[in-house]
Amino acid sequence: MSLDDLTAEVQDNYGDIDDELAVRTDRETRNELAMLQAALDPEDVDELVRRAVHAFFQRTVETGNLDFHLRGEYDVTYDEYLSGMTFDEMTGGAELPQTGTGDPDDRRYQF
């Protein structure tokens, strides 16, 4: 898969989240949510779930776990996803379109 595949899947998933999200919890999760609710006093339990997703995402990014999985599935990193281009495209390692003159030295002036 590629950067375009990842972008398309993220956009598809984003559109489906509100329709599909119905979180069921086990006893341990309910106990932990109850403790967090008592300690942090959020407006509602949904706020704790939002915070948990943010914390989990941040930890996954910081540990490199997200990049590991993205590289395995899509052959891109999170930074590449954010920039909209692969590392090869950023550094000029990917094939650049020729100008039509046929002179390979023209490439050195392309960024």
Structure characteristics:
single chain; 111 residues; mainly alpha; 6 helices; 64% helix; elongated
Task: Spell out the blueprint of helices and strands.
Blueprint (H helix, E strand, L loop, with lengths): L2 H18 L6 H14 L4 H18 L2 H10 L3 H6 L3 H5 L20
Largest sheet: none
Q: How far apart, in Å, are the first and last alpha carbons?
A: 26 Å
The proportion of residues forming helix, as a percent range, comes to: 55-70%
Count of alpha/pi helices = 6
Global outline: elongated
Order of helices and strands, N to C? Answer: HHHHHH
Low-confidence runs (pLDDT<50, min 5 residues)? none
Residues in β-strands, percent? under 5%
Number of strands: 0
Rg from C-alpha positions?
A: 21 Å
Structural class by sheet pairing and helices: mainly alpha
The figure for the number of domains is 1
Average pLDDT score: 80
Describe the 3D structure.
There is one protein chain. The chain has one domain. The protein is mainly alpha-helical. The chain is built from six helices and no strands. The mean pLDDT is 80.
Précis, in short:
The protein has helices spanning 3-20, 27-40, 45-62, 65-74, 78-83, 87-91. With 111 residues, the protein is mainly alpha-helical.
